[in-house]
Amino acid sequence: MPKIECVYWRDRVGGEIERLKTEAFRYGFAVGPYGEWQMAIAAEEKEVRRNTLTPIKIEEVDIPEKAVALPCIIQRHALGVVAALHAPGKPKKVEERRTFNEAIFHAIADGTVHEGELLGVINIFYASIERRLVRGAIERWLQERYRY
């Protein structure tokens, strides 16, 4: 298993950085035929500048457990696009419910984003672990299963 280090903001974008050392392994997943759309709606008024990334508070977006969130690539706001969603604190697993309250907005023009405006849409797809796990995952499972 590769050892990785997750680097994340503890409190806010641009705030205190924390690091989490852990082991990780690759595994496959299957995406179901059904999904849903969530909206990233501005929860504050914010000035944005062309060609800059700006964190903007949004109304909470809940991503259910065992779901994968992907951005909808269709531009929904005249001033830019949502590059990413953010929630401060330790990263959560896909198997856990996640709540995001901030969008990283990539402005393509100067202007002001107002509270209540739609910034973008998030595609949410339900996923499950694939039956055929990669060799590393199987080895890890066997090690944990038979270590006692």
Q: Would you tell me the structural class of the helices and strands? A: mainly beta
| Helix segment tally | 1
The parts where pLDDT drops under 50 for at least 5 residues are: none
Radius of gyration: 18 Å
In spatial order, strands of the major sheet run 3-10-6
Q: What proportion strand? A: over 45%
Distance between the termini: 20 Å
Helix content: under 10%
**Annotation, overall tally of beta strands:** 10
- Give the H and E element order: EEEEEEEEEEH
Mean pLDDT: 87
Shape descriptor: globular
Main beta sheet: strand number and arrangement?
3 strands, antiparallel
Outline the structure in words.
The protein is mainly beta and about 150 residues long. It has a domain at about 30-130. It has 1 helix and 10 strands, in the order E-E-E-E-E-E-E-E-E-E-H. It has one helix at about 135-145, and strands at about 5-10, 15-25, 30-40, 45-50, 55-65, 65-70, 80-85, 100-105, 110-115, 120-130. It has a 3-stranded antiparallel sheet, with no helix packed on it. Strands 5-8-7 form a 3-stranded antiparallel sheet, with no helix packed on it. Strand 1 (about 5-10) and strand 2 form a beta hairpin. The longest helix is centred in the C-terminal third of the chain and has 11 residues, at about 135-145. The mean pLDDT is about 85.
Summarize the structure.
This protein has 1 helix and 10 strands, in the order E-E-E-E-E-E-E-E-E-E-H. It has one helix spanning 135-145, and strands at 3-9, 17-23, 29-41, 46-48, 53-63, 67-71, 80-86, 98-107, 111-113, 118-129. It has a 3-stranded antiparallel beta sheet, with no helix packed on it. It has a 3-stranded antiparallel beta sheet with strand order 5-8-7, with no helix packed on it. A two-stranded antiparallel ribbon has the order 1-2.
